[in-house]
Amino acid sequence: MFDTVSGLPVHVLVVHLAVVIVPAAAVASVLVAVRRPWLLRVGWWVVGLDAVAALTCFVAKESGEKLLARLDRLSDGQRAAAVQTHVDRGSDMLWYTLGLLGVTLVLLLVARHRAAATFRPRTIPPIVVPIVAVLTVAAAVLAVVQVVRVGESGSKAVWHDTVKNSSGPLH
Asked: Which residues 6+ apart lie within 8 Å of 151 measured at CB?
């Protein structure tokens, strides 16, 4: 399932989506964290976007493992180390997006609970919303930093030697 689509590795196709959707989800999460009216209006859409980002990272991770198995481990020791760095960072990326999803969901639920105090007593102290908002911003920043680290290590593993050893001036 995560191996190929039309003869192309799924990993190569889906990583580009992750590079776009993780920062987009992070920006959306930050926006709703700092603008409470937006949180109450579009919070579920942002949580959905965060879930799609996590799902995309899961597919990228699984398809990367299939691609690595297909390539049957590279023989070049230096390149194998670079690939392993990418694999390790890519495995961690899923946790970063799940963290972003989790704190954004908690932020939405806490804010909605605080806003809907008409029919039930407020059991969550007012300070909780800003604390969870700060955690959401932190999770968003960490997710973006990690997606950059994953992408950088992957492109370095694949392209560094090719570009370094290419000859001729660029026009």
From this structure: 15, 19
Sign of CA dihedral 81, 11, 68, 6: negative
For residue range 31-62, what is the model confidence (pLDDT) as tens digits?
999 999 999 999 999 999 999 999 999 999 99
Sign for the pseudo-dihedral over CA of 162, 165, 168, 169: positive
Alpha-carbon distance 123 to 145, whole Å? 35
Residues in CB range of 39: below 8 A, 6 or more apart: 32, 33, 46, 107, 108, 111
Answer whether 0.90 is exceeded by the pTM.
no
Q: Please give the full DSSP string across 54-107, using - where no structure is assigned.
A: HHHHHHHHHHHHHHHHHHT--S-HHHHHHHHHHHHHHHHHHHHHHHHHHHHHHH
